[in-house]
Automatic annotation (TrEMBL):
GO terms for cellular component: 6-phosphofructokinase complex. It comes from Raoultella terrigena (Klebsiella terrigena). Keywords: Allosteric enzyme, ATP-binding, Cytoplasm, Glycolysis, Kinase, Magnesium, Metal-binding, Nucleotide-binding, Transferase. PROSITE patterns: PHOSPHOFRUCTOKINASE. Belongs to the phosphofructokinase type A (PFKA) family. It holds the Pfam family PFK. This is 6-phosphofructokinase. The gene is pfkA_2. It catalyses: beta-D-fructose 6-phosphate + ATP = beta-D-fructose 1,6-bisphosphate + ADP + H(+). Its main location: cytoplasm. Pathway: Carbohydrate degradation; glycolysis; D-glyceraldehyde 3-phosphate and glycerone phosphate from D-glucose: step 3/4. GO terms for biological process: canonical glycolysis; fructose 1,6-bisphosphate metabolic process; fructose 6-phosphate metabolic process. One of its GO terms (molecular function) is 6-phosphofructokinase activity. The keyword Plastid does not apply.
Length: 166
């Protein structure tokens, strides 16, 4: 309602679809999504290095509020073994069973990507460690996902909205 009131007062307003969560209806992708995706994948790559060298399981919490787009895209791009998004029901026991199956096949490490608000990731990591006997660490990426220089695709998405028009 604020934009409408400003327009009525003679100050034209527009809205831009800018959020890393990618949760604005009517858009395929929002401005900021791909920059956040790049940041998250870089973090997952770094976690994979330490998870592999220490033979541990990493649980990484990704922003998204109640939309799993960023988590899913990051899990695919980052090669995560498991992904948990709010759009799909999950059971921590099923997750543990899958992790145990991987361990039985000789898997030495794993990364679980999970969207924020689904559960307490520290409690989930403790549960996984207790049930599998494998050291498990939780990482909350937090607001680092919201910063940084925009990747080229976000710049392309924003360009038509930012041009001055006569």
């Amino acid at each position: 309602m604020g934009a409408m009131r400003l327009t009525e007062m003679g100050f034209p307003c527009i809205g831009l679809p800018g959020t890393i969560d990618n949760d604005i209806k009517g858009t395929d992708y929002t401005i900021g999504f791909f920059t956040a995706l790049s940041t998250v994948v870089e973090a997952i790559d770094r976690l994979r290095d330490t998870s592999s060298s220490h033979q541990r399981i990493s649980v990484v919490e990704v922003m998204g509020r109640y939309c799993g787009d960023l988590t899913l895209a990051a899990a695919i791009s980052g090669g995560c073994e498991f992904v948990m998004v709010p759009e799909v029901d999950y059971s921590r026991d099923d997750l543990v069973a899958e992790i145990k199956a991987g361990i039985a096949k000789g898997k030495k490490h794993a990364i679980v990507a999970i969207t924020e608000h689904m559960c307490d990731v520290h409690e989930l990591a403790d549960y996984i460690e207790k049930e599998t006997g494998r050291e498990t660490r939780a990482t909350v990426l937090g607001h680092i996902q919201r910063g940084g220089s925009p990747v080229p695709y976000d710049r392309i998405l924003a360009f038509p909205h930012g041009r001055l028009r006569d």
